[in-house]
Amino acid sequence: MQIQDLLQFTIDNQGSDIHLIAGSPLSIRVNGLLSFPSGPQILNKEQVESLIFAILSKEQRLALEEQKEIDLAYQFNNQARFRISVYKQMESYAAAFRLIPDVIRGIDDLNLPKIFHSFSNYNQGLVLFTGPTGEGKSTSLAAIIDEINQQESRHILTIEDPVEFVYKSNKSIISQREVGKDTRAWQAALRSALRSDPDVVLVGEMRDFETISLTLTLAETGHLVFATLHTNTAAQTIDRIVDVFPSYQQAQIRQQLAAVLNAVVSQRLIPKIHGGRIAAVEIMINTPAISNLIREEKVFQIDSVIQTSAGAGMMLMENHLMDLLKQKIISRETALSRSFRPNELIRLLGP
Question: What is the CATH number of the domain that holds 10?
Answer without folding.
Answer: 3.30.450.90
